Predict the 3D structure of the following.
Amino acid sequence: MLSNLLPKEGSLVTIRALTTLRDELPPTPEEVTHWQVEDIEGGGVRWDNEKAQDVEIEVPIPAAGVIAKVLEKLNADEQLTPDHLTLCEKFLEGSA
């Protein structure tokens, strides 16, 4: 879910932080195997929810600011979904 929110454009500092973050985002090759991740027709991905686990990652401060702005815009435009709830709790103050 997080990787879908990350913008493709921005300042040099932002793009560097986002590139670092994208490189660290799961799944690792080991997680792909364990979670049974597979591509599906139409460009999507599926996995075994019983085997998949939340993974804690460190988010660079510039990237955290970008993520918060994207979530704030989705909130203002009333486009948040239940899938965004955990991200809002982590990146938006006062949403927990």
User: Anything to note?
Assistant: The chain is about 50% helix and 5% strand. Residues 2-91 form one domain. The mean pLDDT is 86.
